[in-house]
Specification:
Residues 1-46, 191-222 are annotated as: Disordered. Belongs to the binding-protein-dependent transport system permease family. By secondary structure, the protein is α+β, with helices and mostly antiparallel strands. Among the domains are: 105-176 and 336-446, MetI-like fold; 208-327, no CATH class. It is 47% helix and 9% strand. It contains 14 helices and ten strands. It has helices at residues 29-42, 55-83, 97-102, 106-136, 143-151, 158-168, 177-189, 342-367, 371-379, 384-412, 416-421, 427-430, 433-441, 448-477; strands at residues 20-21, 24-25, 208-210, 216-218, 228-232, 257-263, 287-292, 295-301, 307-310, 319-322. The strands form three sheets. A five-stranded antiparallel β-sheet has the order 3-4-10-7-8, with no helix packed on it. Strands 5-6-9 form a three-stranded mixed β-sheet, with no helix packed on it. Strands 1-2 form a two-stranded antiparallel sheet. The protein starts with 19 loop residues before the first strand and ends with a helix.
């Protein structure tokens, strides 16, 4: 008996027909794919489970900060904007008149000019000085100590820094460090000693006379081999230099032209006018010129006893002249706190405070520069200046931009240094917008309408630089 399979048989031994199964009809493969696609399209896509707490919990934690931000920042800005549209009393609506006053009042225009000087000069100097310090400190062993010293002013408040520099810029060289340094340098390279107030006696018996330009000249011409006496008065004996010795009576010395310049005054009275007496002192350090036909033929300086000598003068008649520089006031430094130098002086204090911050920021960026790029440039024959200019500075440009923008914002807000350093008499010349805002609103002006307008104007100036910083932060996060 032969077994014959009439149709396909499954592996379990059961007989099945095409498209069917033992348990019922079976769908073909194309039908399964179609059915599966339809089911997938119809089924909703499951949402991913959020990790962590709900966002509303973060909102509750941020709510106290948002309330403080609104109370201390948002509300004052809105109130100042509204208040700037009213007059000093706050009762009468004046519109944009306060803003028009900002650009029409001469004192306010001075503050804007000063702020422009600040914005242009101070950030550039601070950034440049910080870059120089950061680059140079990489090459010294005591870089940490140097950075600490330069950064130390950041630990001092701006008010205290203003007090310090108010003393540094004092006019008296015995008190002000700046003028003490300048006078020391000037005295080191200048041999002349000033005798302000010195003059000839006002009578016909004096052998010398004072010209309109302040110089003292002999009335009669002299010639080599003839001693010349030049007596002066108008100086207190206690004001003479410490090296002044007893005056030496003028004596002839061969063919040399000699003479003596001395203080023709005997302490306690007595003595003979126009003659050197025993207790009279010479005037050292005075410049004496021998003039012939309007031309200076020789120049010399008096000794401690007031004597002087011209040794190589040709024969002829000469007029001896003491230039007016001998009688000028001694150099006592610059008037740092005067109307001319007050703004540069305060900018110098600002640089002293912020140079350390710039140096530390730039040094941090400098440490992140790949050294292989610098070494490759040196191997290729680049000089140190080329490496600095073409590699170091471009790689540091993001950090330099951060420092520069930060300094711009700080200069726009500067208040303490100007208020403390500038004396009251020159504050109008040193004024800036932040200080003018305080003076107008609270410092005696009692015009909070104009003060609020100045505050909004300052905010408008700061906002572009804040936006630049925010965009830079976003780019770094991306």
């Amino acid at each position: 008996m032969t077994d014959r399979l009439d149709g396909p048989q499954d592996l379990r031994g059961g007989e099945s027909a095409p498209g069917s199964s033992p348990d019922g009809p079976k769908t073909s493969e194309p039908d399964l794919a179609t059915a599966g696609g339809a089911d997938s399209a119809a089924a909703p896509t499951p949402h991913k489970a959020r990790l962590g707490p709900s966002p509303w919990l973060a909102v509750w934690f941020l709510l106290p900060a948002l309330i403080l931000l609104g109370a201390m920042v948002i509300y004052p800005i809105i109130y100042s904007l509204i208040r700037s549209l009213f007059d000093a009393t706050g009762e009468n609506f004046v519109g944009v008149d306060n803003y028009a006053t900002i650009f029409s009042d001469p004192s306010t225009l001075t503050t804007i000019r000063n702020n422009l000087i600040w914005v242009v000069v101070a950030p550039i100097l601070v950034t440049t000085l910080g870059l120089i310090f950061a680059v140079l400190t990489e090459r010294i062993k005591w870089a940490t100590a140097f950075k600490l010293i330069v950064f130390m002013p950041m630990a001092v408040s701006l008010m205290a820094s203003g007090v310090i520099f108010r003393m540094v810029y004092d006019q008296d060289p015995d008190k002000g460090v700046a003028n003490a340094v300048l006078t020391t340098i000037r005295d080191t390279f200048s041999s002349n000693q000033g005798y302000p107030g010195a003059r000839p006696r006002e009578n016909d018996q004096s052998p010398v006379t004072q010209q309109q330009n302040g110089a003292v000249e002999t009335k009669q011409t002299v010639q080599p081999g003839q001693p010349v006496a030049i007596p002066l008065v108008g100086i207190r004996p206690d004001q003479l230099p410490s090296d002044a010795a007893a005056a030496k009576a003028p004596q002839a010395d061969g063919n040399a032209l000699t003479g003596t310049v001395w203080l023709d005054f005997t302490p306690g009275g007595g003595g003979t006018t126009g003659q050197v007496d025993g207790q009279e002192k010479g005037l050292p350090g005075i410049t004496v010129e021998a003039v012939q036909n309007g031309t200076v033929r020789g120049t010399t300086t008096t000794e401690a006893d007031g004597s002087f000598t011209f040794t190589d003068l040709p024969a002829g008649q000469y007029t001896l002249r003491l230039p007016s520089s001998n009688f000028e006031e001694p150099f006592n430094g610059l008037t740092w706190l005067g109307p001319t130098l007050i703004t540069p002086a305060i900018i110098g204090a600002f640089i002293w405070v912020w140079a350390g911050f710039a140096m530390v920021m730039i040094a941090a960026g400098l440490s992140a520069i790949p050294r292989d790029a610098l070494e490759a440039a040196r191997i290729d024959g680049a000089t140190e200046w080329q490496v600095f200019r073409r590699i170091t500075v471009p790689l540091l440009s993001p950090v330099l931009l951060v420092v520069f923008v930060t300094m711009i914002i700080n200069t726009l807000k500067v208040f303490d240094l100007v208020f403390v350093i500038a004396p009251g008499s020159v504050q109008p010349q040193a004024n800036v917008i932040a200080l003018e805002m305080w003076r107008v609103a609270f410092g005696g002006g009692n015009n909070q309408g104009l003060g609020s307008a100045l505050a909004i104007f300052l905010l408008v100036l700061v906002i572009p630089f804040m936006i630049m910083n925010i965009r830079r932060f976003r780019r770094e996060q991306q």
